[in-house]
């Protein structure tokens, strides 16, 4: 049978394990030899015992685990060609030329580059005698399928990324805990949630928590926002509201592109309104805990589809990302997803970048 490998890369997200499990089991079900590549690209570059065969049992009982049991990492060596050359050798040594990459924007961009270089890498390895001529011929193409694991929901081409729903659950639990104490003491809370370039979590958090205000990168506030914010808070208090919640994405900016920070908002409210104002930065709590039911199913569906896409791939087919579109699992070209957003971000066109990233919160 054919060999395929699965790895997780970049920041972890709840739901990666269900995806890993589905890849392994669907692969075995279809008669493939399935490998884990531990610690993301680091394991691919290092090889050795970081590339190990998976069994049906090795993914048992992981559906409800957060994070990723095969480890994730950031890997500098893979960004350079010599690192990718070693990665190619390690894969070919295991007769692997089908891989499922579960990661964010960066990981999938790296995968795409790797695939484009593959032929050249194989040629070089063969010329140097590091792989046999026979293997060089047999594995002269690389099939890649991407799955987007990211709590930020920041990927173009899919309605939801694996992990975003669980992160929202974690945030909701945290806000529910904050509101009781905020109300008791008539406090104002500035809640900072993750999302460097993507305000999805901030926006849905605000909608789901009865917040008074939200700051997010795609929608910088009007220049007079400070007056407007204070006026709004004052009115709510006058109307008997005992607490205020302000949600801010970590990547919030003003119209000039300067960061708006939690500290700045807190100082503003304290100075102008003299409210007891506190900051809660949720941080890594958002990535933790068990995957939601939605993410377990999403990871399972996407992992299954990834293996099917790999099995149907030909040497000339374009690499795809498995995406969710209107609750359908679909395959979209990897290049369309990563390049368009990268271009928009380079031009600091955050709103366009967001539109490209998905239809997730159009309405
Ligand atoms: P997150 O959403 O958590 O940021 P990510 O996948 O975008 O996830 P990155 O740190 O950007 O996380 O990328 C993970 C790894 O992918 C990097 O450490 C590197 O090994 C590889 N990688 C990223 N970009 C490239 C690239 N342009 N070329 C080669 N490899 C890359």
UniProtKB/TrEMBL annotation:
<feature type="binding site">
    <location>
        <begin position="104"/>
        <end position="107"/>
    </location>
    <ligand>
        <name>ATP</name>
    </ligand>
</feature>
<feature type="binding site" description="in other chain">
    <location>
        <begin position="194"/>
        <end position="196"/>
    </location>
    <ligand>
        <name>substrate</name>
    </ligand>
</feature>
<comment type="similarity">
    <text>Belongs to the phosphofructokinase type A (PFKA) family. ATP-dependent PFK group I subfamily. Eukaryotic two domain clade 'E' sub-subfamily.</text>
</comment>
<feature type="binding site" description="in other chain">
    <location>
        <begin position="284"/>
        <end position="287"/>
    </location>
    <ligand>
        <name>substrate</name>
    </ligand>
</feature>
<protein>
    <recommendedName>
        <fullName>ATP-dependent 6-phosphofructokinase</fullName>
    </recommendedName>
</protein>
<feature type="binding site">
    <location>
        <begin position="74"/>
        <end position="75"/>
    </location>
    <ligand>
        <name>ATP</name>
    </ligand>
</feature>
<comment type="subunit">
    <text>Homotetramer.</text>
</comment>
<comment type="similarity">
    <text>Belongs to the phosphofructokinase type A (PFKA) family. ATP-dependent PFK group I subfamily. Eukaryotic two domain clade "E" sub-subfamily.</text>
</comment>
<feature type="binding site">
    <location>
        <position position="278"/>
    </location>
    <ligand>
        <name>substrate</name>
    </ligand>
</feature>
<feature type="active site" description="Proton acceptor">
    <location>
        <position position="152"/>
    </location>
</feature>
<feature type="domain" description="Phosphofructokinase">
    <location>
        <begin position="4"/>
        <end position="309"/>
    </location>
</feature>
<feature type="region of interest" description="N-terminal catalytic PFK domain 1">
    <location>
        <begin position="1"/>
        <end position="363"/>
    </location>
</feature>
<feature type="binding site" description="in other chain">
    <location>
        <position position="250"/>
    </location>
    <ligand>
        <name>substrate</name>
    </ligand>
</feature>
<feature type="binding site">
    <location>
        <position position="187"/>
    </location>
    <ligand>
        <name>substrate</name>
    </ligand>
</feature>
<feature type="binding site">
    <location>
        <position position="11"/>
    </location>
    <ligand>
        <name>ATP</name>
    </ligand>
</feature>
<feature type="binding site" description="in other chain">
    <location>
        <begin position="150"/>
        <end position="152"/>
    </location>
    <ligand>
        <name>substrate</name>
    </ligand>
</feature>
<feature type="binding site">
    <location>
        <position position="105"/>
    </location>
    <ligand>
        <name>Mg(2+)</name>
    </ligand>
</feature>
<comment type="function">
    <text>Catalyzes the phosphorylation of D-fructose 6-phosphate to fructose 1,6-bisphosphate by ATP, the first committing step of glycolysis.</text>
</comment>
